[in-house]
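Quick one:
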Amino acid sequence: MKSTVLRSFKKAHAIGMFVLAISLLATPVLMPSVGNAQDARVAKTMAALKDQTAKLGAPKIDGIDEVGGRDAPALYFGSTKMNNNFSVVDAVAREGGRGTAATLFVKSGDDYIRVATNVSARMGGGRGLGTILTGAPLESIKAGKAYYGKASVLGTPYVSGYEPIKDASGATIGVYFVGYTK
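Output:
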């Protein structure tokens, strides 16, 4: 009798430890995190930005253009150059409602330069053109992944989403950004 109870206890203990180990391993996968949590408003606005640019044609880089005081590769969707062109980002931001921001970045070496945006620069006003993507969103994009979560954009906190813009060959040539201030 004593050995049966002992075996049952050991079996229950082993099962309990197994369940505990599995739950600890599963927790990071199941918990919402910056990398996989998507805010519904951000997801809807990202879909709108990608839809608006897709209507123009496939993304590509062709030539160099001055943006915000620096030279940047010229980002195109179809035949429409996006550098210094605010029609798409402004329309998406209007559609997203108060506090919504939209930006297109182009890849330049290891940097991503803001070439079309409705985000204001803090100093001197105007649009934050020519500024560089930084922080956790940059690290995710460099790893080939989207970033969804909180991010500081030119000093303002946003609930945001960043996704890579890929050309016909699958190479990342830029970044879509949408977000809103709370």
